[in-house]
Amino acid sequence: MTETAIAKRTVLVAGATGASGLAATRALVGAGARVVAVGRDARRLTPLVSLGARAEVCDLTSEQAVGTLAGRLHDDGIRVDGLLHLVGGWRGGGGIPGQSDEDYRFLEQSLTALRHVTRTFWEDLVTAPAGRTAIVSSTAVARPLAGGANYAAVKAASEAWIHALAHGFARAARDAGSPMTAAAVIYRVRALAEREDDLARAYVSLWDRPADTVNDSVVELDEA
What we know:
By secondary structure, this protein is of the alpha/beta class. The chain has one domain (10-220): NAD(P)-binding Rossmann-like Domain (Rossmann fold, 3-Layer(aba) Sandwich), CATH 3.40.50.720. It contains eight helices and seven strands; from the N terminus they run E-H-E-H-E-H-E-H-H-E-H-E-H-H-E. Helix 1 packs parallel to helix 7 (196-205) and helix 3 runs parallel beside helix 4 (101-120). The longest helix has 28 residues, at 149-176.
């Protein structure tokens, strides 16, 4: 059996307890990768352990908790080669007047978690022989509606963070005078429900292409 490009890479799946995390873990383990599945609820991580993942309970919105997670993994000799960020959720409706601060703070947790994880694991990702980071965004970024303004604003900010991460990967390679090995990618989708397997396959396939050909790309999953 031919070994896949992702085989023996370690991927941290952030926000792994939903349907997309289950699909991603199944695909990653099936391709020979090692998976660190991260979520807040130990019970909901159990199905991922049965697939072969290492489960880690962590509040990714806490910078200290993420730092502790990284220390625990590093102490066990684990360096992260990839990050699939699935922390998210939806709240909306009510037009512009209905875009409450409470809903915004809930949605903003995904961006906060993304910032913490990418900053904490930056050294792992940028020095990995083949590092791949990806987030799931929304087509609402290109055409935001009044009832989803909070949601679209947070997704747009998350995309901006990934574009900046991609620039950081490119700059680090240029400064080192070496080929790029790390890449950051945005997946956009209208609705992730029933597209979880498509997302999983797309992420796994990132390791089949050189980093500089996928870095800073936006992939429309509905068109893939």
